[in-house]
Design goal:
With 483 residues, the protein is α+β, with helices and mostly antiparallel strands. Helices cover 16% and strands 33% of the residues. The chain is built from eleven helices and 27 strands. Strands 1, 2, 3, 4, 5, 6, 7, 15, 16, 21, 22, 25 and 26 form a 13-stranded mixed sheet that branches. A three-stranded mixed sheet has the order 9-12-11. It has a three-stranded mixed sheet with strand order 18-17-20. It is globular and about 70 Å long.
């Protein structure tokens, strides 16, 4: 789908051979036949936290040629190529529909020097057009999603294709976007599953049972990936530069891994649980009218928790030791449903699935982290489960109170942060390139890649928690934690 060809990108392909520089140190970005120079690209970012990749781009032109000959008109695209620096990973080639372009006032009357801000969304064939030309009869949602991916020209990825929601999925004057969202909202397997659907920047449609990934135990077998050094190196494997070796996939802030793609240099944390609890509650009582039964149907629902997690973790059910969550119930009217295939027009769990999928997706994002990587890690993909180790060294008091007895933080001078460390699910990967300047801030020298990875957990582990040895003096907490 890209405007670029292999001959324009790869000088010499294959492991251990020098690879052309295009798309490595600087992304290759083209619009209407105009390829922006590295000096013109100021900031470039691909955001995958939503269900489809989005783009933000800032360009500063030094010539009016782009404006006169290549400025985007109606329906034009931005074509992007990013090389992964090794043939072990596929390059990223994406076309983005340009949704919006804005500019500042030009520095001159002719508009030769101007800053343009672009926003875009991944281009899919006729993605916004209303459709009436297909119908998937007697299909489960996973199969309908596969057929839709084939129709659009996408790959298909799933961890669960045995859903129990057979019905006739049809386009009734809606767009592909609306159809994908309908499947995302109403897919159903059982009362212990919830689903999400998204498209990645390799043009794959992902149909994922999220309960499977959020329920992975702490003793899971860790995936293997490729451990590499500085991203900007211009060689693959054998000849030097980026050295790739197989390694256990564990992300960490440990300085011992500082030069690798497993190291994140900083992170942010966000807690949105109070807002979500006030709007969604801890339990719902749901009502709808079933046209086949000719009566109102009601049932109660609570968000999923991993079995046994309440024994060793904080399951995010209000303050520990309090039962307020049991009374925080919200009544919700879901409207009308004609169900019961083949007589009805939707599967019998249509309304339940709508709440079950959306509510559990929100529940898993009560607390989220964003990890900031200087070396891009192409092992990481949205939806994967990955262990993350947070090491504590600098703050002596934190070393004492953040771990478990077995960590022996007081003796070693370092500890694991037991609240932060554990298995996480990747909820989005952002690739960003930013131009660097010299000390005067005038002349651009080069740019740098960075990567922001959004991760979340459903239950949160804690340091040792016996209350009998609790002291009001934090210096006496040792590795005990009282809350």
């Amino acid at each position: 789908m890209s405007e670029f060809t292999d001959s324009e990108i790869i000088v010499e392909n294959g492991i251990g051979k020098k690879i052309g520089a295009a798309g490595s140190n600087v992304p290759v970005i083209s619009c209407n036949g105009y390829t922006f120079s590295p000096n013109e690209i100021k900031v470039f970012e691909i955001d995958t936290t939503d269900w489809i990749p989005k783009l933000d781009l800032r360009i500063k032109t030094s010539s009016g040629v782009f404006l006169s000959r290549h400025f985007p008109k109606d329906g034009d695209l931005l074509s992007v190529f990013i090389r992964s620096m090794t043939s072990l990973f596929k390059p990223i080639r994406v076309d983005f529909i340009i949704l919006h372009v804005d500019s500042n006032f030009s520095k001159d009357s002719e508009g030769n020097t101007q800053i343009y801000d672009f926003s875009g969304i991944m281009n899919l064939t006729n993605m916004f057009s209303s459709k009436n030309d297909w119908i998937f009869e007697d299909m489960i949602s996973a199969k309908a999603c596969l057929e839709l991916a084939n129709k659009i020209g996408l790959g298909f990825v799933s961890n669960d294709i045995e859903t129990n929601d057979k019905m006739t999925w049809r386009a009734n004057g809606t767009s592909y976007i609306s159809i994908i969202d309908s499947i995302r909202q109403h897919a159903y397997k059982d009362d212990n599953s919830f689903f999400d659907v998204w498209i990645d920047y390799y043009y794959n449609m992902n149909f994922i049972n999220l309960n499977k990934v959020y329920s992975v135990s702490d003793d899971m077998k860790t995936l293997e990936g490729y451990y590499s050094g500085i991203y900007q190196a211009d060689y693959d494997t054998i000849d030097g530069g980026t050295q790739n070796t197989k390694s256990t996939m564990i992300l960490t802030n440990s300085l011992e891994s500082k030069s690798s793609n497993m190291f994140f240099k900083s992170f942010s944390i966000m807690n949105n649980s109070g807002f979500k609890n006030s709007s969604e509650g801890y339990k719902k009582k749901l009502y709808f009218y079933d046209d086949l039964l000719k009566e109102n149907v009601s049932f109660e629902m609570s968000p999923f928790k991993t079995a046994g997690s309440e024994k060793t973790k904080n399951p995010m059910l209000g303050r520990k030791g309090e039962n307020y969550y049991k009374d925080n119930i919200i009544n919700e009217w879901l409207g009308f449903q004609m169900s019961g295939v083949p007589v009805g027009n939707v599967h019998s769990k249509w309304r339940l699935a709508q709440i079950q999928n959306e509510w559990n997706r929100l529940e898993c994002e009560k607390i989220t982290l964003k990890l900031n990587f200087e070396n891009c890690n192409f092992n990481i993909f949205k939806g994967m489960v990955i262990p993350i180790i947070f090491e504590v060294v600098e703050d002596n008091l934190r070393v004492k109170v953040s771990g478990n007895m077995e960590d022996q933080g007081e003796k070693s001078g370092a500890s694991l942060d037991r609240f932060l460390s554990g298995n996480y699910v990747v909820r989005g990967v952002n690739l960003k390139w930013t131009q660097n300047y010299n000390d005067s801030g005038q002349v651009p020298i080069t740019g740098k890649w960075s990567q922001i990875v959004k991760v979340s957990r459903r239950e949160w582990s804690m340091p040792d928690t016996p209350l009998d040895n609790f002291s009001q003096d934090p210096a006496d907490w040792a590795t005990k934690y009282a809350f």
